[in-house]
Write a structure and sequence with these properties.
The structure is a homodimer. With about 475 residues, chain A is an alpha/beta fold. The first copy, chain A, is built from 15 helices and 15 strands.
Chain lengths: ~475, ~475
């Protein structure tokens, strides 16, 4: 293949042609992880170029994480460079659903650190549950979830989130989507006005639309959801879907006055509030506000949590804490129309929680993410300037602000061609995007990879690097 | 406790008092499985009764399966006698949802043979899947199901049911309920007329009601669903939910003319047909008709299958085969509003299918069920007369016909007090029940238990035994 690398008639400089062809070959899988490249000297002689020309291309490629020099051993295709196309990627937390990919692309949203998940431990617990499968375990589990898991979740919520509810108020769901499916049935949102944050979690919005709701876009400002604006737009909405701990995708917390205003609104018009507490476990600065649910005197808050961010999305497990009169009805809906999570996955998770592994894992991830976040932030600030880098106090991604007339959708396309998977901020808006930017997940980016990936990002965006 | 067994002032004969108290103690858990009873002689002397009186009570109790004589070792509480109350029972296929129970009651519907499931093999496969859990496995699976499982299901359907579809047309669901949840969203059944068999699977009807459909009861006769009646009642229904292979609960097959009539109806008014093929694997007499789906030229049939009957309900896995244009939309709904079955359970099942275990298991169960069915039928015919015993050609239960003015709901209550779990046929009707009877599952009833359980049933129903 190295024969055909150069088009000698082209105006493009030889080193750029080399860079473009080799990075393209890595991205389309022609060159695969761990493959050895010819030495700069050998390739230069083969192509009749000056050795410095090949070294310039190799330097650029290494700087952007496509290839790795390993001293005397030679130069190899780098591991993180591979997008591949074997299994479908998950729907990310913001931005559009990712294209099929064999492993997450650098910056891809919605995934915890896959390299840091305690797989062996999980496997041991899963195997133990499988071995313990009794004839009774074969019988269909309670549609609200198995007792041990509901108990473990109730205990976790009391300790970690200050939500004191008996296990009977906890319903195990098939993740956030499962909870939303149950809620939209329970509250019969068809043709009803529903408040949604603008910008907001686009999959939640799409879910509400799929359920037939009339989605009302309520703007978000520095204090989070603008409750007064919501009341002006749709005073008697059936439901408000909010992310108070860490607004999705902008990251601010809903202020205390707004929380009280929202709760008052719901109580005054028999509206309901869905509190999407999707990643409150990850906070790196300051103390978190308690969840809205803990202030819910009138019983209007349906609290939704997920294990997709803390453990792994393939687990498909989350939970819903509902005011007592609703829990039984939710279980009935689950029994009739699904979803009913499999009993053995529930049992494995219950053991993981009850034996203290979950608490330890979350603490470990918080430290790991703090390091990965800091490393990425430093590189982004170097490359794009500190004023463009919005860290927020928590979460699993950094927002690279690109306000102005930029087209962040086109930028995401360019990144995808460079093997990078950021999400466009504008996709979180139902209406015209007031802010633009790229959401960059740091969960799967080791600190030592950050410089190369940010360089590749900067090149893809064609933003000149700062000196 | 044996001191207080007798009320000497009561008019009831002593042997009946003994029978009633001891069977009650077994059923309420005061006496537990394997517990040793005093010998008839010892108890008689303790209570100041003739030994023959105690022996009469013991004989009755043994005949109804509450206790077991083990020769010189003594007399013990029998294993199958125990209802207990530890875990919730599944929603049965017909009749109302069962009360919480630690193990299935004799005759309880909706369960495969729990003693015959290859647990060790399943466990080994599950553990292997758990060990093989890669970082990629942690990522969210395709909302339509993991590729290997869709492929295995497509292959199974081709071989076992003559349905030739590519894997892309198969969507993995969270059992029948999960499929119904997706279908009701997909077809937006809210306030729309939907045909339902009368009598029919009451949980399907309840699911349609929960989804907001206007359920139209279409009568069932000897040929299955009366399509002409449906067209008279609601000519432009959105959907018809039918069980053509083995009508739930009456057991007849939908005749070929009716099948063609139903398909024509759907094609003529853009209606849809949900084919609930819930237990077609189990047929003991004659050859099955091919599924409706295999005749579906116009692409109006949504075919639904489940592994709850063939493997175990706690697995919560089933599938849906949809006409090509709908599959993608179904996957989108699943991605947005659930349910998304856990990836590892899917992987275990895929291996179970691909390695041929499923085919072998179904063949084994078919033989086992044929034996259990025959043994129960013989005893029922002895006790109630052959004209009351409706076997059908397949399925997992026998219908004991009790036509006339009997109250089968009250009979089920009486059975429950005797530790038996049949379901009332009248519960399968939305309107007035045209037929009454008891649905008796044979899947968990060993042939040697059949005589005792039928005796107990006959006593509970207070129907005099035939000579």
């Amino acid at each position: 293949m190295f024969e055909a690398l150069l088009d000698r008639a082209a105006a493009e400089p030889a080193y750029r042609q080399l860079y473009r062809r080799i990075s393209g070959a890595v991205l389309d899988g022609t060159l695969t992880e761990g493959e050895r490249l010819p030495s700069a000297r050998a390739l230069a002689s083969q192509l009749g170029l000056a050795r410095g020309t090949v070294e310039a291309a190799y330097g650029q490629l290494a700087g952007e994480g496509y290839i790795q020099g390993r001293g005397a051993a030679g130069t190899f295709v780098a591991p993180v460079a591979i997008p591949a196309a074997a299994v479908p990627a998950p729907a990310p937390r913001a931005g559009r659903p990712a294209a099929p990919a064999g492993r997450p692309l650098p910056f891809q949203m919605g995934l915890p650190a896959l390299d840091a998940f305690p797989r062996k431990l999980w496997t041991r617990l899963a195997a133990r549950q499988a071995h313990a499968l009794s004839p009774l375990g074969l019988v269909a589990p309670d549609p609200a979830g198995i007792a041990s898991l509901r108990q473990a979740i109730a205990r976790y919520l009391a300790v970690a989130r200050g939500i004191a509810v008996p296990p009977e108020h906890v319903v195990v769901t098939a993740g956030f989507q499962g909870a939303l499916g149950l809620i939209t049935r329970l509250l019969d949102v068809g043709d009803q006005p529903v408040w949604m944050e603008e910008p907001g979690y686009f999959l939640a919005r799409a879910g509400l639309v799929a359920a037939g709701a009339r989605v009302v876009q309520v703007p978000v400002d520095a204090e989070g959801l603008d409750v007064a604006a919501g009341m002006a737009l749709a005073p008697t909405a059936r439901l408000a879907l909010v992310s108070p701990s860490h607004q999705s995708p902008l990251g601010m917390a809903l202020s205390l006055p707004r929380r009280l205003q929202l709760l008052d609104w719901a109580a005054s018009c028999d509206g309901w509030i869905v509190e999407d507490d999707y990643d409150s476990e990850f906070r790196y600065v300051g103390r978190p506000l308690p969840p809205l649910k803990s202030l819910d005197r009138a019983g209007r808050v349906l609290y939704v949590g997920t294990f997709s961010k803390t453990l792994f999305p393939g687990l498909r497990l989350g939970y819903l804490v509902a005011p007592p009169p609703l829990t039984q009805r939710i279980a009935e809906i689950a029994a009739l129309l699904g979803p009913l999570p499999a009993a053995d996955a529930q049992a494995t998770l219950a053991a993981f929680l009850a034996e203290g592994h979950f608490g330890r894992h979350v603490r470990r991830m918080r430290q790991l993410y703090a390091r990965r976040r800091a490393a990425l932030a430093v590189e982004l600030e170097k490359a794009f300037g500190a004023d463009r880098v919005a860290l927020g106090a928590g979460g699993m991604q950094i927002l690279l602000r690109l306000d102005g007339a930029v087209d962040d959708l086109a930028m995401v396309e360019a990144c995808r061609l460079a093997g990078l998977g950021p999400s466009p901020l504008s996709r979180a808006y139902a209406g015209p995007a007031k802010r633009r930017g790229l959401l960059l997940s740091f969960t799967n980016l080791a600190p030592e990879q950050a410089p190369a990936m940010v360089q590749r990002l900067a090149r893809a965006l064609s933003v000149p690097l700062r000196p």
